[in-house]
Amino acid sequence: MSHPPADQPPILVATPDTLPPGHVTAPAMFGHPGASALAYYRRRRAAEWTLCQRTLPARVTAVVLAGLAAGFATQQVAPALAGWATVLTAMVVGWRLRFRVSQDARNWARGARGERRTARQLRRLVRLGWVVFHDLAVPGSSANADHLVIGPGGIFLLDSKNWRGRLAFTADGTLWHGRYPLTATLATIGFESNAIADAIGVPRHIVQPMMVLYGSAIPWGEQYLGGVAVLPAGRVLATLLALPPLLTGQEVGQLADRALTRLGPAA
Q1: Which domains, and CATH codes, for the chain?
Q2: pTM for this one?
Q3: Helices 35-54 and 103-126: angle between axes, nearest 10 degrees
Q4: For residues 204 and 153, is the Cβ–Cβ distance under 8 A?
Q5: How large a percentage of the chain has pLDDT more than 70?
Q6: Quick one: 101 exposed, middle or buried, by C-beta within 10 A (0-12, 13-18, 19+)?
């Protein structure tokens, strides 16, 4: 992971004086990875299925008429094949008009799978004194935070992206995913990390936002853009474990207690 500029405050500075003991013991793992994304996918799929049911009579009519038209046309030139033409045409048209979940809805299901993959990696941190939260509600917004990890190396907000396609930089230094600039996406992740920091009562620079990518290669391997670390999913665990210790076990527990009492599940 590329590091912030030299004049940026340290990743984390915490002392027992600023972290009063909590009264709740946070579990080592909290929440359900991908729950919000999967719930949204299911709502979209249900809505699309309802719409499909409303248009079902029209779809059936189209299948029948297409089959009859093909059978009639074939009857004029090859009567023996008219029945086959009717059936095959009806099958082809029926297949084309079948219910299919939209690509936008499928992207949410794909995103949920990415979050679960990240969660499996983060599970290994628990044995090393880290506390891991999944799918947290972001205070003051309808957004959700995919993963919050608190451990010896600091506090990190991870946003999992399970994308297809290539990432590329334009001449002005903007990172793009296909035809879409990622400026707003990175700004959203930064907003979420700031909101989380405010909620648990630490300075905003303490919570380091990270975008974790599946399925898309990052130009030059890792980037640090708009205050957000962008790195491939395969590097997440090694990156976190390579950080120098900044928090004691007591401080990790106190911050985890704050997160548990002040942040709720998104779904």
Answers
A1: 16-38+103-262 (3.40.1350), 42-96 (no CATH)
A2: 0.78
A3: 160
A4: no
A5: 90
A6: middle
